[in-house]
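Exam revision sheet. Question 4 asks you to relate a sequence to its structure. Input first:
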Amino acid sequence: MSSTLRLAIGSVLIGLIVLGIKGLAWWITGSVALYSDALESTVNVATAIAALIAIQVASRPADASHPYGHHKAEFFSAVLEGVMIIIAALLILREAFDGFLNPVALDLPIEGLLINGAATVINAVWAWLLVTRGRSSKSPALVADGRHLFTDVITSAGVALGVLLAVVTGWWVLDPVMAALVAVNILWSGAKVVRESLSGLMDEAVPQDVLDRVRSIISTEAGGAVEAHDLRTRHAGKATFIEFHLVVPGEMSVFDAHEICDQVEEALKTAVPGARITIHVEPEHKQKHAGIVVLS
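Answer key, structure tokens:
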């Protein structure tokens, strides 16, 4: 079992534990804000399950129906998570509105805050782990899941502040007001997750720093070639697709041209883990004088 899959399974288990703890905090206090916080955690569980399924699908090898692999399955999961974050925020806004119209005093607020605080610490640690490991393993689903949990941490902090202020001042309306403010922040986070995930589905190019690295490697490692042009890149989960045309002298043998391609591919795979490289070799008269200059 891969480390990515283990983390995805762990997210489901952590989500269930945190949901139980937050549900207890709401049950003993009757707080609208704590109820909203627990409601948002139900989405954590659902999105963790979605991420688990997506990672399992994305790990499948390429087949006749999917010759480029199943890497984009993780982007679909990330989009789903972003949508569910937005739905959770809207549900919280609805509860906050009801609470604003009918504010009530809370039962055992300090005890509820302490219980909810324990769940927040668990979420914060796990969110950091998911984002860190997700980035290192190039897993959009894990990164999206981690960012989602970070929004839950922010939610919990805002909720705790609202409940504490309500207890200190006796203004119980602060409980739903704070829940509404945090819901707005969650809406922004959900929209960001959706936007970034859609960029992957739309075959967005690799970041500029990676593109510069690719161009530099082609320039320095393709000794014997004339130039490279029509460089195109895209990323899909753990895979990074790199395609370009390599112009070689017309008299060069197929064997020598293939040796140059092998050298460039090896260097690119070392610098860009998960790289899938396609090189189209062309004779010298195809030179465009506008591509990557090869340093002999």
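Marking note for examiners. The first helix runs from residue 3 to 29.
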